[in-house]
Amino acid sequence: MDEVLDLPPGEVTVSLAKRALRLATHMSFSTLQDELYHQHEVRLTDTVLDRLMQSVGQVAERDQQAAVEKLEGLPEGVAREERSSAKVPIARPKRLYISCDGILYPTRYRQDRSDGGDGRRIVYQEMKCGSVFWQEGTSVWHKQCVASREDVDRFGLRLWDLAVRCGMLQAEEVIFISDGGTWPDSVAKHYFHDATRILDWFHASEHIWEAAYALYPDDPAAATRWAKPCETTMRESSGIGLLRFLERSRCVRGGEADTSPTALRALDSLIEYIRPRLAIMDYVEYRDHGCAIGSGLMESTCKQLVAQRLKGSGRQWSENGAVAMAALTVQRLNHTWEAFWASRPLQRAA
Q: In this structure, are residues 213 and 223 in contact, taking their beta carbons and an 8 Å threshold?
């Protein structure tokens, strides 16, 4: 009968696995067990749920890896563009935003504490997350996402492939927005070098406030009085205006006897952060063109892909488990859940 009905080997039917795993991308296995019982009067153990999640999630991940490997085998340029463009287009927006970031999650692995304390500390790993988003008219935003534990180059190619399928090659304007981190910068330069680069406003602002609290560690009100004008200057005069403001402030404080070395280091650190990023801090120009200057949709993607499911009290993940869960969550967020299950992942996992 299993053969006649095309059922996969294992404890559950495709229908139950599909429902259980979709719920699993939202909630812990313990909560999921209660929901399955109340909704379907079925009980599944942690072991069964984990085995389902890993087997089906790894199929989803292998599908993505296979697509990247095919692109890697082609020369950069027209050949890769034609292969990615041949897929059914997701959208054809006039302005397309691309972003990426990393977020840490707890693993099952342990290592000795660096401070010499008792016990061993939890090892955290970084999940790379990417998002491609665009606006419909003047209101509704749409996005597609990717997640990976691969190296930067393969992750970048995965994100590039998604961007092409979202209409990057046809878009009138492409914008890459991210923080000032090393690996997002590498992805931008290698795969999106023709895009307009924007340093995420909120990340730049965070650096300002970090410096403010270092300058006034015991006086939050004074820190606020210092940081607010910096933000205003950055908003009205872009990065170059802020840099000049900080350099003048550094010159004045450097000549004051009561300025602490810590305060001077905080100013120097902020100046050193801004100076090489002036070209991607032209916020006046970006706003004049109606561009988004914050990566809020990227932050929400990291939250949906990792923070809501992989993080939390008592949650710890193996490498394969974290990758599998992220791969399943991507299918749900990208609205490809039904198409993925139509590819018979349980049978392919057997």
A: yes
Task: Using only the alpha carbons of the chain, give its radius of gyration.
Answer: 24
Q: Where are the domains of the chain?
A: 73-199+300-334, 202-288
What count of other Cβ atoms lies within 10 Å of the Cβ of residue 9?
9
Q: What is the pLDDT of residues 131-174, one digit of tens each?
A: 999 998 777 899 999 999 999 999 999 999 999 999 999 999 99
Find, among 238, 246, 230, the residue nearest to 278 by Cα: 238
Q: Could you tell me the two tokens for 262? A: 């810590």
The angle formed by the CA atoms of residues 65, 69 and 72, to the nearest 5 degrees, is 140
β-strand pairing of 140-148 with 120-136: antiparallel
Is 303 exposed, middle or buried (CB count within 10 Å of its CB: 0-12, 13-18, 19+)?
middle
Q: Six-digit token pair at 215?
A: 């300058």
Q: Which amino acid is at 25?
A: T
* CA distance linking residue 19 with residue 193, whole number of Å: 41
Residue 295 CA to residue 318 CA, distance in Å, equals 29
Nearest in space to 214 (alpha carbons), one of 263, 270, 287: 263
Nearest-angstrom CA–CA distance, 161 and 255: 53
Tens digit of pLDDT for each residue in 85-112? Answer: 888 889 889 999 999 999 999 999 888 7
Report the candidate in 163, 158, 204 with the shortest Cα–Cα distance to residue 181: 204
Question: Are 188 and 154 spatial neighbours (Cβ–Cβ below 8 Å)?
Answer: no
Q: What share of the chain is helix, strand, coil (3-state, %, to 5)?
A: 55, 15, 30
Residue 110 identity (one-letter amino acid):
R
